[in-house]
Amino acid sequence: MSTMAEPAKDEAKDKKALSAGARQERRLGWLLCAPAVIVMVAVTAYPICYAVYLSLQRYDLRFPDRAEFTGLSNYGAVLTSPFWWDAFWVTLFLTVVSVAVELVLGMGLALVMHRTLFARGTVRTAVLIPYGIVTVVAAFSWQYAWTPELGYLAGLLPSGDAPLTEQWPALWLIILAEVWKTTPFMALLLLAGLALVPEETLRAAMVDGATPWQRFTKVMLPLMKPAILVALLFRTLDAFRIFDNIYVLTAGAHGTGSLSILGYDNLFTALNLGIGSAISVLIFICVGIIAFTFVKLFGAAAPGAEVKR
């Protein structure tokens, strides 16, 4: 009996030692993150709290002396307004389509950059050039390109067509501008994920008779899940808050306004700080829900995720 109990005791000691090491590593992680967290809280906490405060007020900047507390009435007004839901569905459409296209194109670019043997640095630099251009500058170039009688791309369309003045053509051109600008960012993140795939594993799959498509889907993609999660999360959160491309290309006209454009119009055009702040808080909540959903659905693939036993 005593000999049977000894391995159990040793195993318990090992688990306790491992748990103590894990706790120490977690404490070190918190200490390393603390300076950045403190700076982020100091910079963002006050604006967020003030936005929440304003969202509970009826506050028109044209009549500041008439400000009064209204509770959640601003949120009710926003969520029952067709303007909110029109902007929400436009934002959702732009986010889903642009991120999906960027993922496919970004994966293709990442594979090309990863396999390129000749002038690899030049190829990677050339691919990343669009991402290095300021978004507003890129948006103005696209606006000029599609301006009738002036733009070099507008000449490809039937005479007199102005795609930025119609809802669906304008939405697709906004997606085109987004994809052109941010696909290199997606490719860069996925390229880092390709570095996680051991060449020995690919060679072993090749020896076993796996086709290129099978090696990609059965070997590479599973090993790239952490990088894919990070790329999708970053781009989805960024795309959901889209503002500058829409503001430059259409200014939100013709049914192309996003949630950020709606918040801007209420805050800076209508000067309605109560409604505008409520829209901003709701956008913040939507972003939080998206991030939480990604982590919950794909958290097991996240970098540093612990395996539960």
From TrEMBL:
Residue ranges constituting the ABC transmembrane type-1 domain according to the UniProt record: 88-294
Record flagged with keyword Isomerase: no
Membrane topology: Multi-pass membrane protein
Keywords: Membrane, Transmembrane, Transmembrane helix, Transport
Compartments it resides in: Cell membrane; Membrane
First-listed, main subcellular location of the protein, grouped into a coarse class: membrane
Family annotation (InterPro entries): MetI-like (IPR000515), MetI-like_sf (IPR035906), Sugar_ABC_transporter (IPR052730)
Residues of the signal peptide: none
CDD domains: TM_PBP2
GO biological process: transmembrane transport
Alphabetized Pfam families for the sequence: BPD_transp_1
Transmembrane feature ranges: 28-53, 87-113, 125-145, 170-196, 271-295
GO cellular component: plasma membrane
Membrane recorded as keyword: yes
Family membership: Belongs to the binding-protein-dependent transport system permease family.
Protein name: Sugar ABC transporter permease
Lineage: Bacteria, Bacillati, Actinomycetota, Actinomycetes, Catenulisporales
